[in-house]
Amino acid sequence: MMTSAPKAVLIYSGGMDSFTLLHQLRAQGYQVFPVSFHYGQRHAKELQVAAQVCQQLQLQHQIIDLRAIQPLINQSALTGDQDVPLADYAPDNLAITFVPNRNMILLSLAIGYAVNLGIEACYYGAHSGDHALYPDCRPEFVERMDELAQLANLQPVSLRAPFLHLNKTEILQQGLALGLDYSQSWTCYQGQTLACGQCSACRERLDAFARCGHTDPLKYQTA
Amino acid sequence: MMTSAPKAVLIYSGGMDSFTLLHQLRAQGYQVFPVSFHYGQRHAKELQVAAQVCQQLQLQHQIIDLRAIQPLINQSALTGDQDVPLADYAPDNLAITFVPNRNMILLSLAIGYAVNLGIEACYYGAHSGDHALYPDCRPEFVERMDELAQLANLQPVSLRAPFLHLNKTEILQQGLALGLDYSQSWTCYQGQTLACGQCSACRERLDAFARCGHTDPLKYQTA
Predict the structure, then answer these.
(1) Which residues does Zn(2+) bind (chains A, B) (predicted)?
(2) Per CATH, which fold does B7-212 belong to?
(3) Choosing among B108, B122, B140, which should be mutated to test the A contact, i.e. which has the most A CBs within 10 A?
(4) In what order do the strands lie in the sheet with A62-65?
(5) Region A8-36: what's the mean pLDDT?
(6) Which of A8, A72, A107, A199 is the most buried (most CB within 10 A)?
(7) Does the distance separating the beta carbons of A135 and B153 come in below 8 Å?
(8) pLDDT tens digits for range A107-123
(9) Which of B35, B137, B154, B155 is the best substitution to test chain A (most A C-beta atoms within 10 A)?
(10) Quick one: closest CA in A to B94, which residue?
(11) Do residues B47 and B80 lie in contact, with contact meaning Cβ atoms separated by under 8 Å?
């Protein structure tokens, strides 16, 4: 008897974490429906990378242009006019990279998509390194959002964040064990041809590769 | 000493309930920041009515065009190709007027707007008549969404649905007691010059006026 593959909606940014999660879900036998959001990040490079990966894997990929919501959430370096700090993540420079209510907004759309497709699971790649910095990556947030997703529609949806208690290095270790090619992921906050190697996102990525004893296959301006 | 007015974000559809809530909040001394969403309802009439009211009251009104999210939520009569049923609301014809995860999506955007403005309260006009039909109007949903809004951002937001235990007639009674002119609200699901008087939304509105012993000041095709 044939059984159909389980299905999952995945918020797929094009970054390392959701790239790893995409491949893990596929390795577990899921048919994955990735959705990417353009919410006014100052470049579309990570979305291009995400689209290339989905095309190569022949996945039905939704790229949703949310720039029309900018008048509501425009107090942020990622979506506004301020410069992105070229430094490590820290509470001081975190505040200006914070998009108001970002994860609740993106998750509610992904959950709506799951309801629309009759899919019962919605995944995203929040991880423990985000907890201290972003309130909407904390376990309490994910638990409450999951409870809400169970009762907000005629059909319950389960919200799953399997990296919630892993750090960036541990996620990378899992992906390297799967043999993933991380040149197919994008992390840098700058939108240039090559990753800058200087912004907080690049520094965190390079640090994770160093801790895993691997060289990042991505090309950097500073290499 | 001068004290500044308390502020509130309000999801303002242009319909009777949010029209009543807008005026109640103003009567309570709130500076109101109304936000309306165009999410692919098949006409923009209610948004025009909402914009006129805000212009008249000199309120800063955000109208956010969410039509780009349609590929995620397109299984619905309100946003898709099916006809709206010309009958009373009932579970049978409800399913096709249901937009997947609508309230979670709209509330998460309104909460983001509140965070962005530094406002601690976000209002919407869910009422008891919706409970049986729409899962995302039930008290459990509102309570959980409020808990989530308290912890999803660096700044807590309180979600308030003061009509949650009132029916349409009771809301109308409150608005009539305030002397509101309901010709400035729009309810009909059809997008024509005059309200149809036939769709489930018109029928419910006319029923509420009849129960209050008032004549609806809105013009109807069937009058």
Answers:
(1) 188, 196, 199, 202
(2) Rossmann fold (3.40.50)
(3) B108
(4) A62-65, A31-38, A7-11, A121-123, A158-160
(5) 97
(6) A107
(7) yes
(8) 999 999 999 999 999 99
(9) B154
(10) A154
(11) no
